[in-house]
Amino acid sequence: MSPRTGGSRFPYGQLLILPALIMMIAFILLPIIWGIVVSFTDMSLVGPRAMKLNFVGLKNYLKLLGDADFYNSLRVSFFFTLFSALLGQAFLGLFLAILMRQEGLRGKTLAALAVFVSWVIPEVVAGYMWGVYASKRGLFCDMLSLLGFKPRNLLITNPLEMIIIANIWRGTAFSMILFSAALESIPNYIYEAAHVDGASAYQRFRYITFPLVSRALLVDFVLITIWTFSVFTMVFVMTGGGPAGKTELWTIFAYRRSLQPPYEVGYAVASTNLMALLVLVLVLLYMRMMKKIEVRGV
Amino acid sequence: MRRKLAWYIAGHLALALVIIFFGAPFLWLFFSAFDPKASAEFRIPEKFTLDWFKAMYEPLGGMPGGVIPLTWIVNSIIISVSTATLVTFLTIISAYSLTRYRFKGQEALLSAFVIFRLMPMIVVAIPVVVIYAQIEGIAKAYALNIALLNTFHGLVLVMSALILPFTLMIAEGYFRALPVEYEEAAMVDGCSRFVAFMKVTLPLALPGVATIWLLSFVTAWGEFLLPLVIMRSPYMYPASVGIYYWFGMYGRIEYGRISAFSLLFSFPSVVVFLIARKYLARGMAGLVTR
User: Fold this and answer.
1) Angle at Cα A128 formed by Cα A127 and Cα A133, nearest 5°?
2) A68-296 in CATH: which number?
3) pTM of the full predicted structure?
4) What ipTM is given for this predicted complex?
């Protein structure tokens, strides 16, 4: 009769997970399956096509292939993810984690707090702040003009660059915390031994730190790629996808096509299905990596 | 020693840049909330005022009469408290099932949680809105009155379902780490398995349970996309959606009031994350080194 092994024959204990499962099936799994079905119809949110399933085969998917707006949103999402997640957050996060380990630096707590708070405030507030901060009269422009740049509305002239910078600001904390944990697991005596052997700071990084955090780096890459690829709120509040679609991520594209005129639900859902498939591949890759780590015991 | 000095200076320089990059956006938000003449421009106010905070009771221009910013905060509290409570309850009984029993498909379930947790919100949000609309339509055809869109329960149900994979992953690791010996002792004394869990292990797990509640609370508190698509009337908006429409309204943007409101709205999130930092690292470790 230990809690770990069976007692009564009827699976009361197993049944206790049912309510949570039913919730997740009803509100996550079924909507996804429903989305797959609807992507083969010409369903609309309003009007006569709202209630009837009228199957049109692959029409939505074929239409996507020829839709310049869809390609544009893919391009925007690609650059957004590449620069703000992979090149921005991951490396800035690693740099910050290393910086925070240096001894004798004053102001580390303040810096860590600023990074952390940027990450935890509600996303809408972050979007509102940056929408003003990066505008022509905002503080960001004031600071740039101190460096000699001409003041201009960066959200109009360089919108993609601005949402990338804003997202680096928003998300770096995750990578920093992750790498800090990875660095803490490296015992200090390795560095001391290397120091005694005369290894330079660069060599210590190249031959000790980097190989030991490279695994964490890979995990970080996959996770922040998924999350950045899924971003909606911050960019939606900051720019609304504009000007002229220059910051229209695929999430914003799908939102506008389905829940705003022309309310083409079937078409929009076809686009999110393709993206969900892409994310699923990344998630499976991530789970494989985790399994390997578990086996090797790192 | 010269090299050491160079490192010292370079380190501080880097730190200063980090503080400017991450801290500067907050400066405007903070000062404009206390500045009687707040605008998009950054300036240190000559005079500090609390008027923008007091204006939470004043009606909003451009919105239907009677909508005041305080309405949105109250809505956010109703939504987040219900969501967090529902999620925590379901998470606890599920954690009992996951950690005290072994059954077929357990591993598959944990994998499913990972997939659910990492799916983009929009993939679920669009179908849910349309399904809600269809259910309402079908019910109407049978003269039933089922309301899901623009209701608190309609939002709380979806939001809870989407937070569950996250809390279940944290709870699974947490409850597995707690010893079962006390439970066994209680069972020898005549408690049933579930009672032993609830009376013995749960009190031990109170800090973890509180953290799960708080993390679900702030996740619901900051959530934007789901309430954006489900809520239709400004009377039902939570604060997150409220800020968006307020900021996007035509005409003069009331920077001072929006900033003050944003500060109030951000406060719970910051406090909870500072409290839950330790557990958050644990939950993240669960995602990184399971």
Assistant:
1) 95
2) 1.10.3720.10
3) 0.90
4) 0.90
